[in-house]
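Page 42, continued from yesterday. The earlier attempt failed because a stray header line got pasted into the input along with the sequence. Redoing it now with the clean sequence only.
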Amino acid sequence: MVTPLKAADTKSSPSVVVQAADFDAGAIVGAVRAGNPRVGAVASFVGLMRDYNDGQTVERMVLEHYAGMTEQSIEAIVEEAKQRWELIEVRVVHRIGELEPGDQIVLVVVASGHRGEAFAACEFIMDYLKTRAPFWKKESAGKGSRWVESRTSDHDAAQRWKR
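This time it went through. Structure tokens are written below.
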């Protein structure tokens, strides 16, 4: 199990964290940019759980993963982003376990010297998280539960990054 990321230890934390606990997005963004005068831009994305998906109300969701393999997969995505753009720092925090509507699911933070690289890398990482990272989602509502299939639109979004 990964120790929850806290504001006090975000500066020395690894670039990829998978955890059940919630996270403080502001503290992590602050830690990514803190004390580095080379940082000219920080782009971030926070994904939240919705209460509605594919025409159905959703009351809760369980996110499962394969420990070790999931972190490696996300680290490979981050490394690919670092090869494509000049990035100073990247952090990805992804939650697992039971979530409710409004809960934070994922945080991607990218610092670079310029905004274009930060925006592009943040979007790239998020698109690839949706298609390459091994997570399994099970949504539950009053009518029962169902495993969520990957979306064609997510794969289409990732396709634009193909070289």
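Notes: Strands lie at 16-19, 41-48, 52-53, 56-57, 60-65, 87-95, 97-99, 104-112, 135-141, 144-147.
Reminder to self: strip header lines before submitting.
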